[in-house]
Write a structure and sequence with these properties.
alpha/beta; seven-stranded parallel beta sheet; single chain; 18 helices
């Protein structure tokens, strides 16, 4: 009789690691891990002398987090003046930075002391000004250590003790709450219109997205593509303008024009699923277009792939064809983009909506993110998830991709690798509690094929059920980059991933809100309605969430 295998005993080293991870510190677990070399660093940091970081300020600082941030800005400008620098960091002034009301009195000696943390190569990005709670900086290891422990000198604190919340004579007030790593973020139709019943909703309820503005935070949107010309999809109302957050552009016109250039094509593909229309024969026709071409990949008998180009004679339309799209460029290309760009874009949406008092941007699509590590943050509590939840509470629907990490390999007892579905693989910001997190299913046969093998699966690391919904994400046809296309030809292509499933939900909600306007500014109620009206695909909840998006049933339910 074979002896039963004894369960392995946890190693003391692991216990030590867990204990260390729970120690309270003002340097985030992700950044601390990179600085110690325990984790493979994102490209461009870790082995370098400087780290790209996100600084979250202490709200208990005299005057609040805004005052704390202003103090760091002034210290940085003092450093620049001291070394005679005229570099791009002076964009802080060019953006019109001014001290906030309630700024406490801080001595020049204290500012000088704080400015000494900066050294050659230090930088604070001007995009920080689009947020209220953060600064996006490049700092040395020593600067991070000093900044994390810097407190208001006692003599200055005494001057402002009437403005502090703590009021304690012995308690020093730290400048920052936490310093995080500025992660690299990655980009995670005609048959699919029928799959979620958008075609029926257009015909029965005239739910076409009119009067709705939806933001797309991605690689930009190709403003030259004919799909966005037919219904003037990118012409924005109410003084809104597109914006590029991948570079510091003080000139709004330059920043707006740059957001309508998409060198990668991902954002253009995503945008074409949400809105727009291309038609050669049916009215309204697309001007100057004689042919619609669709590129798709086919697998050959020898296992190689080849591209096939077909001509399409019908109409290609987004889920909410008349919805207006706002391009927020946060990825310079398919591989380059910082978390700070996305946080700045979220701040831009909140500011454009006057923090919920006048909602002009009704929703935002996030087909991007980064792998979540519970060692760094509690699930749903990373800076990105916190800002997503805050944006929802200000009245904006936030629809995010679950991620494409739902399938991989495990190691057998023998040591051999074996392929398997992976639970607990939802990416950030899909872990945000108030976001609508979207997984992927088949383009036109979801009941047969169920949830896509690659679609990230729940639950979250703290035990909440995600994703919320699934939508078509396999071989979805939408806009290809127009640059280089032949005259008179509108290019489209196939792409696959939860990046493609997410804009189906964004477009469906935009269509819903255009005819059920009483729910504008109520994103949590909208999520509840869509989730309760989803179609059960008879798959496990951690795979499908509530089920398949169904716009027709959602409209009939209210």
């Amino acid at each position: 009789m074979a002896r039963a295998q004894q369960p392995a005993r946890p190693r003391r080293k692991s216990e030590g690691n867990i204990q260390e991870n729970l120690v309270k510190t003002r340097i985030g677990g992700d950044l601390s891990s990179f600085m110690k070399g325990k984790t493979d660093p994102p490209k461009g940091i870790g082995k370098a002398k400087h780290f790209d970081v996100i600084i979250e300020f202490n709200r208990d600082f005299p005057g609040g987090g805004t005052a704390a941030r202003q103090l760091l800005f002034e210290a940085f400008l003092m450093y620049l003046d001291r070394i005679g620098a005229t570099d791009e960091s002076n964009n802080l002034w060019r953006f019109g930075m001014s001290p906030p009301l309630g700024m406490p009195a801080v001595s020049e000696d204290s500012k000088l002391d704080l400015s000494l943390i900066f050294s050659n190569g230090s930088r604070i990005a001007a995009k920080s000004l689009w947020t209220d709670s953060y600064a996006f900086a490049t700092l040395t290891r020593e600067a991070i250590d000093r900044l994390s422990s810097w407190t208001m000198p006692k003599k200055d604190d005494d001057k402002n003790k009437g403005e502090t919340k703590s009021g304690s004579k012995n308690k020093k007030t730290p400048l920052v709450y936490k310093i995080w790593c500025d992660h690299e973020i990655k980009r995670c139709v005609y048959e699919s219109v029928r799959t979620i019943k958008c075609d029926a909703a257009h015909a029965s309820f005239a739910a076409s997205g009119k009067g709705i503005v939806w933001a797309v935070a991605d690689t930009g949107i190709d403003g030259t593509h004919p799909h966005f010309k037919t219904l003037r999809t990118l012409d924005l109302p109410d003084g809104l303008f597109h914006r590029d957050f991948t570079a510091d552009n003080p000139d709004p016109a330059v920043a707006s024009a740059a957001a309508l250039i998409d060198s990668a094509g991902h954002g253009t593909h995503v945008a074409g699923i949400i809105a727009g229309r291309t038609s050669v024969l049916d009215e309204p026709k697309t001007d100057a277009i004689k042919k619609i071409c669709v590129n798709s990949e086919v697998r050959n008998e020898d296992g190689t792939k080849s591209t096939v180009k077909d001509t399409h004679d019908g109409v290609i339309t987004g889920m909410a064809p008349h919805c207006k799209l706002l391009s927020l460029k946060v990825l310079a290309n398919e591989k380059q983009g910082k978390l700070s760009n996305l946080l700045a874009a979220i701040g831009y949406v909140r500011r454009s909506n006057d923090y919920g008092r006048n909602i002009k941007i009704h929703g935002i699509n996030l087909s991007l993110g980064y792998p979540f590590d519970p060692v760094w943050f509690a699930a749903g509590q990373s800076p990105l998830c916190v800002e997503v939840d805050r944006l929802v509470r200000s009245g904006v629907c936030v629809v995010v991709a679950a991620g494409n990490a739902g399938y991989g390999t495990v190691t057998q007892f023998s040591g051999a690798p074996e392929r398997a579905a992976h639970s607990g693989t939802i990416m950030d910001p899909g872990n945000a509690a108030l976001a609508i997190t979207v997984g992927s299913t088949h383009r036109d046969m979801p009941h047969t094929y169920g949830v896509s093998y690659f679609s990230s699966k729940g639950p979250t690391a703290d035990g909440r059920m995600k994703p919320d919904l699934v939508a078509p994400g396999e071989r979805i046809i939408s806009c290809a980059r127009y640059n280089g296309a032949k005259s008179g030809e509108a290019p489209f292509r196939e792409d696959t991933g939860t990046s493609m499933a997410t804009p189906h939900v964004s477009g469906a909600i935009a269509a819903f809100l255009s005819v059920r306007r009483e729910f504008l500014g109520q994103p949590e109620r909208v999520k509840e309605i869509f989730v309760s009206a989803a179609t059960d695909l008879k798959r496990r909840p951690e795979f499908q969430g509530a089920g398949l998006l169904d716009l027709m049933r959602t409209l009939q339910a209210v």
